[in-house]
Amino acid sequence: MSSQYNLTSNEKNVLIALENLKDASPDELADKSEMKTETSMQAAFLLEEKGLAQVDETITEIFELTDEGKKYAQEGLPERQIIDAISGPTSMDELKDKFNPAVAGIATGWLRRKGWAGIEKGMIVPTSNAEKGEDEKILEAFAGEAKTFEELGADKKVINDLIKRKLVVKTENKKRKICITSEGKELVVAGITVEEEVAQLTSELLKSGEWKEKKFRPYNIHTAPRPIYGAKIHPYQRLIDEMRRIFLDMGFTEIKGEAVQSSFWNFDSLFQPQDHPAREMQDTFHLSSRSELPLEYKDKVCAVHENGGETGSTGWGGKWSEDIACRNVLRTHTTSLTIKYLADNPEAPVKAFSIDRAYRRETIDPTHTPEFEQLEGVVMDKDMSFSNLLGCLAEFYYRMGFEDIRFRPGYFPYTEPSVEPEVYVDGLGWVELGGAGVFRKEVTAPLGIKYPVLAWGLGVSRLAMLKLGLKDLRQLYHSDIDWLRKSEVCQL
Amino acid sequence: MPIITLPYDDLEKLTGTDKDTIIKRVPMIGADIERIEDESIDIEFFPDRPDLYSVEGVARALRGFLDIETGFREYEVKPYTVEITKDENIDSVRPIFGCAIVRGVKFNSSAIKTLMDLQESLHWGLGRDRKKVSIGVHDLSKVQPPFRYIAADPDYSFVPLDFTEPMTMKEILEKHPKGTRFAHILDGFDMYPLILDANDNVLSFPPIINGTLTMVTEETTDLLVDVTGLSNEVYTALNIVTTALAERGGEIEYVKVVNADGTEDIPLDLSPRVKVLERAEIDGLIGMELPADEIVNQLSRMGFGAKELEDGRIEVQIPRYRADILDNSDIIEDIAVGYGFDKIPAVFPMNATVGKSHMLSDISSDMREIMTGLGYLQVMPFTLTSDRVHFDWMCREKTDDVTYVMHPISEDQTMVRTTILPNLIEILSMNQHRELPQRIFEAGDVVINGKNGLHLAAVSISPQANFTEVRELVDALMRERVVEYEVVESEDPAFMEGRRADIIVNGKKIGVMGELFPQVIVNFGLGQPVVGFEIDLLD
């Protein structure tokens, strides 16, 4: 019968102990069941949940004299001390001479309130015979001990006044009483056998085979666990890895390169005019070092800037400066890597990607950081077209989990046509996500790239804000360790 | 990129349609709507389209795109009545000069503001902040032709805009707000550009300021537009400003420029540039076959003149206000934009290639697997840092292999890191309110002598952190990497003497580990022991 309650041995011991106790205190129960007080009470609560015992809690108010209260209980309240000491009108100065000024101060207020004396022209004038008040009786009734309300036989208001005068403090005393219920009693009468329960399976129990005879203490499976967190990779890294996998799945080769790039590879090779505002120090981290220009390309790039070279373009006009092209910068985009890779690998087909850091001279705020990850994909092959670019974008964004995508005209100095893909995000609407285009001939021809190049890129950190629900980009780089601990591996 | 404010009443009148249609369609010609207000809309246009920097220009483009008025826009240009002579000295100061007259324009205050905004946007977009192009617009009735464009002595004086007393040009550069702002453009010249009328009244001191005499007011009807500069964008700017004024009902009249050698120029040329496109080039770039009439139709909608030649090629007339047409691909893009990107099929290229991840990514990925397995969380801090954090707080001597940025934006980011450990300790210092122990790592880029390297570093902070912990960690790591290593006493001042070791592989130091020197811990504001290591993954 007891099995239906699935009692632990502690619970059984407590139940048996309770059978012969009536309204037991926790200590009495601990004594009787031969357990620690906490353990026996824990079992008692569990028995209460099962309806086999009852734990009653009564709260008793206990009153106690403060140090000041104890002093006055002996010496009398200040007003009593003074009224006893004067016989006729007495000046305040005289009182302050005779008594502690604090006592005199407290006393005058109470003398008037109790109607024992009046104040006239700075003199205290006794007006009654000052019978012993309820408050004084109570102070005596304490007799220096903590007492309950009933023991003091006091009036609530008088006690409260004494509490307000900080002569008495009130504490609450919780008392628990445990008794057995009728169901509990039935169970005990029917007989409970207490067998030893095993807390932990050990190798000895396994080797000896004793485990077969033992009863294992059941756990309360409903107890909430303490949260623990495993070490893991950064959620941002997971997003980057997901994008890398998409590219690798689509047959793209990963490329990496230097953070320090010449202006030539960062700007000039991409047909960015030398006086373009993006090249200025407001936007770009310039370095004091310089690079050698690649001999095989520099004259052709120069010509295409100045007059279009052999491309049929008008070029930008003006004079192209080798000196400006040599100056090193921290790469402002990863396109400096892809363009160099294309120049070094002119054999079609090329499909390549990079996800790496780019640097812009931006003041840090929630949506701007001076360095951020950029994703870049390029396809170079015979007969590639804008239509194929849209195909790459649609496939890529679909694999990124964006099913609705649309294309808007865009502008980038090194692509034509240029397009800004937008994806539909629930709750946000159409969100611009990156840029794309077909490399201009002014970019490809001087580097000897014979076929059309499709290129697209996007700011990965922006995407991370979207996917990880971040409000502040800085969280990616200056991470809160708790955020990392609690980030979910399967969130994305 | 410039953001243009377009008042609805002007925009609707000039375009000939309602604002809701405009708001709906304008993004599809290549623009981002920034703000929709009660009276106007703010739109950011791309920097390659300075012809869209005014309400007149936007209306012109929209009329085509919305099929209200398509095709090449002809502007009648009346013969000259005004001459300007160009002084030979000016050729070495600000040689390129454009000029035209527009008569019969009706101005109200909002039209004047639009004109001023257009000039400012062109100064930025085409003129590189007035260096290459600067524009002046003048009330023609206040001055007497013929005019002269000369290089004048800096002591020449006149009353500039916004002032009431005459100032010399030198004083303007020193005291006038526009003077101080743009004086750098005239650095190194001892003569300054000046445009004068027949009575030596000053129209303009390019590229700084106009004279107050010719200021445009609501009474102005006839305008002289001058554009000066260093490059051919001068003429583009002249075309954009004069055609915008013509869109407002003005009549354009060209101006004759007489050069010092007696030759004559007419700077205003609104006749179309002509290009002939092969159909294969168009179809090849867009990736679909478009019928000739479709191509012609779309070009017309985008403001070009276009016709199919007998041999099937397409002849395109390019308006002179279009600064963005450098090459055929720019025209083909407009065909695609006109046709609509949404109607172009998205076809994934079916060329087969084999994907391959980069060796450096593979290494980092392995390190992440090892380190997370050992209980370390990955972090990804910035690579930009400062001498203070990187060297001073680490109690390390500055090294000479550091890449410093020339104009740092804050004193926290003056250099690219050569080691990762300082970044990690910084992250610990930001997480002092979080539960200990904290164990973090990064496998990331460093830049040494201008070249990227790949390092792995980790730190652990807790009351029990000690040398044994990091010694075991490094040992486990090297075992997983299948790298034989040995340790020797280190001298790295970032670590505590007797509790630090250099990590040696093949006789070469590849890293260091140990308990951080207490002063380092204190420098970062931390209050518990920290241990850590850093190794070069490429050595």
TrEMBL record, chain A:
It is an enzyme of class 6 (ligase). L-phenylalanine binds at residues 335, 374-376, 414, 439. Coiled coil: none annotated. Pfam families: tRNA-synt_2d (PF01409). It comes from Methanolobus vulcani. This is Phenylalanine--tRNA ligase alpha subunit. Its EC number is 6.1.1.20. The keyword S-adenosyl-L-methionine does not apply.
TrEMBL record, chain B:
InterPro entries: aa-tRNA-synth_II/BPL/LPL (IPR045864), B3/B4_tRNA-bd (IPR005146), DNA-bd_dom_put_sf (IPR009061), Phe-tRNA-ligase_IIc_bsu (IPR045060), Phe-tRNA-synth_IIc_bsu_arc_euk (IPR004531), Phe-tRNA_synthase-like_B3/B4 (IPR020825), Phe_tRNA_ligase_beta2_arc (IPR022918), PheRS_beta_core (IPR041616). GO terms for molecular function: ATP binding; magnesium ion binding; phenylalanine-tRNA ligase activity; RNA binding. Mg(2+) binds at residues 324, 330, 333-334. It catalyses: tRNA(Phe) + L-phenylalanine + ATP = L-phenylalanyl-tRNA(Phe) + AMP + diphosphate + H(+). Gene3D superfamilies: 3.30.56.10, Bira Bifunctional Protein, Domain 2 (3.30.930.10), Phenylalanyl-trna Synthetase, Chain B, domain 3 (3.50.40.10). SUPFAM superfamilies: Class II aaRS and biotin synthetases, Putative DNA-binding domain. It comes from the Archaea. Keywords: Aminoacyl-tRNA synthetase, ATP-binding, Cytoplasm, Ligase, Magnesium, Metal-binding, Nucleotide-binding, Protein biosynthesis. It is an enzyme of class 6 (ligase). GO terms for cellular component: phenylalanine-tRNA ligase complex. It holds the Pfam family B5. It is found in: Cytoplasm. Residues 270-346 form the B5 domain. PANTHER family: PHENYLALANINE--TRNA LIGASE BETA SUBUNIT, PHENYLALANYL-TRNA SYNTHETASE BETA CHAIN AND LEUCINE-RICH REPEAT-CONTAINING PROTEIN 47. Belongs to the phenylalanyl-tRNA synthetase beta subunit family. Type 2 subfamily. This is Phenylalanine--tRNA ligase beta subunit. It comes from Methanolobus vulcani.
